[in-house]
Amino acid sequence: MFERSITPLIIVALLLGTVLALRSLDPPSATPVPASSVPVLTPDRVPLVTGDEPIAEIFTKAGCSVCHTVPGISGADGRVGPPLLLGATGLTRLADPAYRGHAKTVREYVIESVLEPGLFVVPGYPSSTMPIWYGAKLSALALEKIASYLERQGDTTAQ
Predict the structure, then answer these.
(1) pLDDT range class, residue 14, cuts 50, 70, 90
(2) What pTM was computed for the model?
């Protein structure tokens, strides 16, 4: 009899503890995080990405999620660089007067941004943060898959 009466109390205590723990978590912030607080990516820490991997693995192996939020990619919630919602933001970036690249399409812009990240830095984000050696770590197939995936991602509330 004692075990029957204590079981509901244990369940209630566990549920209450779970609710309180979840409420104490901070919601994700949309503001950029200082680059100095993010682990430094170096070429020796990023393996060659062949493009034969599933798309989520391509983003993970390439290290994109360290600095960027990538929709649909688990754990890709970095805030040093802008969210990669290029389906919604790509054309705006191409039209930005500060844009100095040569891309004409969102797909070309994605590829150009990886190969020559200094051509355009989204306002509000740190410059000279994205490694310039990514082109040596991503095969043409991997880069094409990244561009194809990102040009389809959109969110009207994104930058």
Answers:
(1) low
(2) 0.67
